[in-house]
Structure formats: structure tokens, C-alpha cells
Write a structure and sequence with these properties.
This protein is mainly alpha-helical. Helices cover about 65% and strands about 0% of the residues. It has a domain of about 40 residues. α1 runs antiparallel to α2. Keywords: Coiled coil.
Amino acid sequence: MSKEDYSKYYIQGSDHYLIPKDIFNELFNEMENWKKEAHQYKKVIDKLSKTIYEIDELRKTTGGYPSDYIDYSLEILREVE
């Protein structure tokens, strides 16, 4: 949803929104930042999920846990810090 989609909240014949325009802009920008953060977290979760499935497959075939996958998983987690 874009900023322009919120024009329905504008009170016709007035220069006021249902909430003050500066607060609206601040909240809208905060929402956009949350979307970007959520997208970044989703990418990290997807990478970790893939790694976990690979570890599980290797564990089934070799009987152990490869330490390089653990290091790789920790590296992925550091991406969001």
C-alpha cells in the first residue's frame, strides 16, 4: 500500500487528516522500515531453514554433525545484528 492510498483518510474541505499529517508520515515511514526488516529476517530464516535441512540429510548419511555448518549458521545469524 502506498502513501497515496491513504488519501481516503483526508477530510474533504479541510487540510487535516484524521491524525496529524506529520504523525501519519512518521507512522507510515516506520511501517515501511518494519516491512524492510521483516523481509531481511525472512531471508535469514530461509537460509537457516535450508542449512538445517542440509545438516539433517548429512546427519542421516554420516551419523554426525559437521562443524562447518554450525559456523555457517552462526554467520547467517550475525547478518541481522
